[in-house]
Here is the input.
Amino acid sequence: MALVDDLLPEFDREIATTRRLLDRLPDAQLGWQPHQKSMTLAALAEHLGQLGVWGQLTLNEPAVDLETMGRPPDYQPLASKTAILSHFNTQMGAARAALAGRSDAELRAPWTLRRGQQEFFTMPKAACWRTFVMNHLIHHRGQLSVYLRQLDVPLPSIYGPSADEAL
Here is the structure.
């Protein structure tokens, strides 16, 4: 079985689960943050969509240099649930398209993350996809579920029933 045949169903399931959670965002509380050192609800939710960009970079580039990356000068934070969901859907759709059809050789090719001359890691693209993209997404989705719980927003089921919703 090709590596991509393992990665795509996992991606599809995690993206659908994350989308259900994002659909619960309360527009009136997007500026809320649980602690001064924490991201706002909107920033955390937007970050989930940005991980789709990392998925694309992981698959389409041999490396990323954080020194040369940055937000465009005209960047504006997303200010509504509708905008956050649109961003998420667009970026995750592009990430899925970048993954679909990849050969094992492409997925085993090395990918490097660096800042200038400092190399953080080099690993096969498939391993990077799983750790730096998917596990990263799952981690921040977990944070988002805690934010929503603190705001008393009913949570959808994720890996089984939630206290608010059966399977």
About this structure: The radius of gyration is 17 Å. The chain is about 55% helix and 10% strand. The beta strands are 63-65, 110-115, 118-124.
